[in-house]
Amino acid sequence: MEKISIENVRSFWEKNPLFQGESKYKPGTLEFFQEHRRVYIEDCFAGKLDNRIFPTDMTGTVLDLGCGPGFWTVELARRGARDLIAADLTHNALSLARMRCHLMGIQSGFSQENAENLSFDNDVFAHVNCQGVIHHTPDTNRAVAEIARVLKKNGTAVISVYYKNLILRSWKKIAWFGKILNKSGAALAGRGREGIFAQSDVNEIVRIYDGIDNPLGKAYSKKEFYELLSPHFNVDELFYHFFPARSLPIPIPGMIHKWLDRHLPFMIFARLTKKN
Ligand SMILES: C[S@@+](CC[C@H](N)C(=O)[O-])C[C@H]1O[C@@H](n2cnc3c(N)ncnc32)[C@H](O)[C@@H]1O
User: Fold this and answer.
1) Buried/exposed 86-101: b ≥16 CB within 10 Å, e otherwise
2) Tens digit of pLDDT for each residue in 146-204?
3) What topology does CATH give the domain 6-165+215-274?
4) Does the structure show a pLDDT above 90 at 229?
5) CA-angle at 70, arms to 69 and 73, nearest 5°
6) Closest of 65, 73, 77 to residue 40, by C-alpha
């Protein structure tokens, strides 16, 4: 397989910022951000944000790493983060995050950063928020080491990645069902993802989830995620969310979505404390 470079990753996300190509609204408008928030909470959390993602103490400097269009930056600020930096590999994500913060009356610093090689000094942040980012970068181990490096002693982080749930683990056996789903109209709209369920290779499903041209997406088992984090962090809690109900051909009741979010989640989250 061809080696994926950070420039491949940057180029994809520069052209395809999160939620662009999915929204009916112009990126950067209030309507775009409102729709993004609604879809994010509805689809990724079955209707309710999980407070375990937010640090209990917001007094220190917080880094939102891989901020994308600034969803978490705004949510962190709304919950009391006052000393906040939003960082992303791409200029376009930062520009969207800046517009979102401006529209919502939120103060934040912004910095273009590669998670694998952060420009910050050691021991500067009290908390790092990093949702759905490090599974897109070529050297994920290095990104985790960098997050630990920039955290202060006893600093905390919440990191999430794609989770190899039962569906992904069993895909070889159930790919035929995916093809039927695909024919019945199940798909993710926009970003060239219409054929996502017709894929036979599970790695392709994970990659195509963010767009047909996405160079890199990795999914982790619980054990793999733990092994990735534990050299640098005490893993305080692992928890799970995300069943993309919007990809189904018909709407499903909220109760069923909540059940799927709990029992067939596609994201794994870790609450972490830096090892001293
Ligand atoms: C799926 S989006 C997630 C955005 C945001 N964290 C959220 O949850 O809404 C992934 C983001 O990670 C950024 N990204 C990918 N690799 C990165 C890296 N090595 N360093 C910093 N940001 C990166 C991309 O530019 C993109 O904005």
Assistant:
1) bbbbbebbbbbbbbbb
2) 999 999 999 999 999 999 999 999 988 887 877 877 777 766 778 888 888 888 888 88
3) Rossmann fold (3.40.50)
4) yes
5) 170
6) 73
Q: How many CA atoms lie within 13 A of 53 on its CB side?
A: 24
For residue 114 and ligand 1, the question of a CB distance below 6 A is answered with yes
64-75 residue pLDDT tens: 999 999 999 999
Cα(147) to centroid of ligand 1, in Å?
14
Confidence check: pLDDT of 53 > 90? yes
Centre of ligand 1 to C-alpha 66, Å, is: 4
The domain spans of the chain are 6-165+215-274
Ligand 1 contact, 131 CB (< 6 A): yes
pLDDT at 5 over 90: yes
Largest CA distance in the chain: 53
Measured by CA distance, the residue closest to atom 1 of ligand 1 is 132
Q: pLDDT tens-digit profile of 98-139?
A: 999 999 999 999 999 999 999 999 999 999 999 999 999 999
Task: Check if 155 has its Cβ closer than 6 Å to any atom of ligand 1.
Answer: no
Does 66 sit in the ligand 1 pocket, CB within 6 Å?
yes
Please check the confidence at residue 1 and state whether its pLDDT lies above 60. no
Between the two ends of the chain, the Cα-to-Cα distance in Å is: 38
pLDDT tens digits along 261-273: 999 999 999 999 9
Indicate whether residue 136 lines ligand 1 (CB < 6 A): yes
From ligand 1's centre to the CA of 192, what distance in Å? 19
Which amino acid does the sequence have at 126?
Answer: A
User: How far is ligand 1, taken at its centre, from the CA of residue 19, in Å?
Assistant: 12
